[in-house]
Amino acid sequence: MKMTSEQKKLAKAKALEEARVTEERRVKKYMRAAIKQALVAQKNGEVPIGAVIVMDGKIIARAHNERETKRLATAHAEILAINKACKKVGDWRLNGAELFVTLEPCAMCAGAIANARVSRVYYGAPEKKGGACGSVHSVLPHSGLNSKTEVFGGIEEEKCLSLIKNFFEDKRKKV
Question: Which of 30, 57, 58, 100 could lock onto 34 through a cystine, CB 3.0 to 4.6 A?
């Protein structure tokens, strides 16, 4: 039985919608893994920011903020995750990798992401004071870089934003 042009259009639309839903589920799954890392940071008294790096459909690195613990300005979740991923793959290039992070990367982290050649960044909450993926600065989408990194924001935004907001509210109450 041959499909009419209308049936073909409907079938194509249905397939596109199924693909969109599947991609949305995949992205949320990895962002939830980043949120789990943020909760580890929070438990350790750190600003609750978590990150995971995915390559070929598998998480290859997990990290969370450790600035207070390590007493290092550079111990951001993204930097630590990139370092772990590079060790895991045995190369400084993370071509094809995706980074999921609960807060929009700062300029330092965006520079590291670009240098590591991460292909995509998915972030949860925008960083209105120093975000470098479009909120304040646009480091990653910048066309002058050697590599192109696609950026997608607002993934599980409310959950990610509430982690940060609650952390600082609790901190102010204790002072």
Answer: 100
Instruction: Note down pLDDT in tens along the chain; length 175 residues.
Output: 787 888 777 777 777 778 778 889 999 999 999 999 999 999 999 999 999 999 999 999 999 999 999 999 999 999 999 999 999 999 999 999 999 999 999 999 999 999 999 999 999 999 999 999 988 888 886 656 677 899 999 999 999 999 999 999 988 888 7
* Residues designated as active site: 78
Question: At residue 99, what are phi and psi to the nearest 5 degrees?
Answer: -110, 130
Distance CA 90, CA 141 (A): 26
> Is the CA virtual torsion 123, 128, 132, 133 positive or negative?
positive
Cα–Cα–Cα angle for 36, 81, 59, rounded to 5 degrees? 65
With b for 16 or more beta-carbon neighbours within 10 A and e for fewer, the 137-158 pattern comes to bebbbeeebeeebebebebbee
Distances (CA, A) of 19 to 10, 46, 57, 58, 150: 14, 37, 16, 19, 19
